[in-house]
Design brief:
Pfam families: Glyco_trans_1_4 (PF13692), Glyco_trans_4_4 (PF13579). The protein has about 325 residues and is α/β, with parallel strands linked by helices. It contains 12 helices and 11 strands.
């Protein structure tokens, strides 16, 4: 079978759990099928890195995201997305993640195969059904964002700008629901997410299945490393607001209590996306390692790993790896 796997932004190199899921999914499918990954990158260097994924059974078709194709392209894309937002009610985040050029690339790749199956990651790809013909379509959901957004709005301190945030959440939920309506087959990353979807009217009569967990835990051998007493690990991508919120919560509410009993305790923060503001707010006893190519040494030397998420969705891959 010829399968096209598409995701808005490159999953390689892996910097977050969803990237790991996509890469492992491709590896698993390629053992029996011909797989082509179609995605966007933010730079020419990103295009070059994607070639590392190519091997027998795996091809890559990629483009630089239109809004990153030079200063003029960035300005024109911004103007276009603002107009689509204002006139058609399409949130700008959706327009950036699934621009027409990208959707056409997916359609062209599927037609050239021709692909028997197209797996579209994220509901932002809802318009893909307008471009694909002759190939079976399935939507891969990584999070129930409409639920995550509601949890986010319930957090203490969410009052500032609540009305605006509620309106934006409602707009995003409308697009998410439209994606469920357009795809006949929906794949989820957890069985509980599948149950949630079965209760949504837009999903009535749909084929909804949880994906097998595409994660090889055999590569993690914690016994190969020496544990360090009082070393706490927080692992994640801090481009995501749920990880940023979790880090702020832990460093302000929990870590000070831990250090009253264990003054030598240190929190090691590993992952991309940490900015100066997060560093300033962290306080004492926090070390920032940044992004790493291999998380196994970090997992192996910590005495405890924490993941104090107050809102999130999907599957917590890093906890399984720990």
């Amino acid at each position: 079978m010829k399968i096209v796997v598409t995701v808005p932004y490159t999953p390689w190199p892996v910097t977050r759990g969803t990237g790991r899921l996509i890469v492992n999914l491709i590896e698993g499918l390629s053992k029996r099928h011909e797989v082509t990954l179609v995605t966007m990158t933010l730079s020419r260097a990103g295009l070059e890195r994607l070639r590392e994924l190519e091997r027998p059974g795996v091809k890559v078709s990629a483009m630089i995201a239109p809004h990153r194709q030079g200063a003029s392209g960035k300005l024109l894309r911004k103007m276009r997305n603002v107009v689509c937002d204002f006139l058609r009610g399409i949130p700008q985040d959706v327009s950036y993640s699934a621009p027409p050029e990208f959707l056409r690339l997916i359609a062209e790749t599927a037609a050239a195969g021709p692909a028997d199956l197209v797996l579209a990651s994220y509901w932002h790809m809802y318009r893909l059904s307008d471009y694909i013909s002759g190939s079976r379509l399935a939507l891969v959901t990584h999070d129930m964002d409409h639920i995550v957004n509601r949890e986010r709005l319930r957090l203490p301190g969410a009052g500032a700008g609540r009305v605006k945030n509620e309106k934006e959440a409602a707009r995003l939920e409308r697009i998410e629901t439209e994606a469920y309506r357009r795809f006949d087959t929906i794949l989820t990353v957890t069985a509980s997410d599948a149950e949630v979807l079965r209760g949504i009217p837009a999903c009535e009569g749909k084929k909804i299945l949880p994906l097998p967990l595409a994660l090889d835990l055999s590569v993690f051998t914690p016994g190969a490393f020496e544990r360090e007493r009082d070393r706490i690990l927080f692992l994640g991508s801090f481009h995501s607001d749920f990880n940023r919120d979790a880090l702020r919560y832990f460093t302000s509410e929990v870590l000070p209590l831990v250090r009253t009993s264990a003054p030598e305790a240190v929190l090691e923060v590993v992952g991309h996306g940490v900015d100066e503001r997060l560093r300033r707010e962290a306080g004492e006893g926090v070390e920032f390692t940044g992004g790493v190519d291999d998380i196994r040494p970090c997992l192996g030397r910590c005495s405890l790993m924490v993941l104090p998420l107050r809102f999130s969705g999907g599957v917590r891959i890093r906890m399984m790896e720990a």
